[in-house]
Amino acid sequence: MQEFSAVEGMKYIYPILVGFMILEYLVAKKNYELKDSLAGFGIALGASVVAAFTKVFTVLVVFQWFFDVLAPFRAQYLGYASIGFAWWAWVLAVLADDFNFYWHHRFSHTVRLLWAAHVPHHSSKNFNFAVSIRNGWFITLYKPVFWLWMACVGFEPIMIGTALIINSTYQYFLHTKLLGSLGFLGKIFNNPHVHAVHHSSNVEYLDKNHGGIFLLWDHVFGTWQNIIPGVKPKYGILKDPKTYNPIKLNTHEFEDIFRDVKRSKSFKEKFMYIFGPPGWSPDNSTLTAKQIQAGESPKEEEPASAAA
Fold first, then answer.
1. Average pLDDT in the 179-196 region?
2. Distance in angstroms (rounded) separating the CA atoms of residues 92 and 87
3. pTM for the full predicted model
4. CA distance 189 to 170
5. φ and ψ of 191, to 5 deg
6. How distant, in Å, are the alpha carbons of 236, 248, 255, 306 from that of 241?
7. How far apart are the C-alpha atoms of 200 and 139, rounded to whole Å?
8. 222: burial class by Cβ within 10 Å (0-12, 13-18, 19+)?
9. 200 φ, ψ to 5°?
10. Which of 18, 27, 271, 295 gives the lowest tally of CB atoms within 10 Å of its CB?
11. Residue 235 DSSP label
């Protein structure tokens, strides 16, 4: 089946990507840490197992269903059933895919439940190709929602799947210290120099540079941040789980959400602990990225006896 072969295309790319990882390791061993890299491979293995089912199901069933069901409406009201496979359609598909990725990625940093699924990718204190495969196990359970509109307006599911592969492959090469800003092209296309900001836990760099291939979206939607002279990126996350266990790295934030919801006093607090930004608390005992960047300091948490 043509569609299935396209979705499976990543398996032919994997050996090439692994080859680049080995090459990077041989050239810059200092950028690798054994336990951290093994944790990354463990996370990648689990993510691959989940993705093997969810990605194929998404493209072959979900996207195809929306594409087929709405085809008569597109034909009647828009004058076409499918956008087709012309060169300009591919250009639009790649642009639309990157737009989708930007918002998927941005919400994965600003909605705590989604951050819990995305956080394994950021928990490494290193910045190398091993980090690029460190994708959370639960990401693919919600990520396709951001791409559904493409099938609805007439992008062929095979085209959507291919655009996703192109974007993922491009982003692999963003995670390295061996490549720079790409010169003039680095003002248009995402690059390791820019992506290092995104992976940093420095206050100045929190929740910045969410784009996949293009820098356009960050500039337009106000999340662009270049490297600040004198502010060296510090990789990792503010709330370090202090573990190399792949299971714990994928679940620790969910566990924290559960504990926060359990001790919350109202429905609003429960809702905000789940769907509010990471770090939100009703008493400001923990702070969001925006609050930290605004210079606020966390207040002491009320004692359990006082809160009762």
1. 91
2. 9
3. 0.90
4. 10
5. -155, 165
6. 10, 8, 11, 28
7. 20
8. exposed
9. -95, 150
10. 295
11. B
pLDDT-derived band at 301 (thresholds 50, 70, 90) equals: low
Contacts of 225 (CB under 8 A, 6+ apart): 197, 204, 205, 208, 209, 218
CA 269/CA 154 separation, integer angstroms: 40
Query: At a CB cut-off of 8 Å and minimum separation 6, what does 39 contact?
Result: 124, 134, 244, 245, 246, 249
pLDDT digits (tens, 9 = 90+) for 142-169: 999 999 999 999 999 999 999 999 999 9
Tokens describing residue 38: 């093994």
pLDDT at 305 over 70: no
Question: What distance in Å separates the CA atoms of residue 238 and residue 236, rounded to the nearest whole number?
Answer: 7
- DSSP, res 44: H
Q: Are 120 and 249 in contact (CB under 8 A)?
A: yes
Q: What percent of the chain has pLDDT over 90?
A: 78
Distance CA 96, CA 99 (A): 5
**pLDDT above 60 for 1:** no
Name the helix (H) or strand (E) containing 45.
helix 34-57
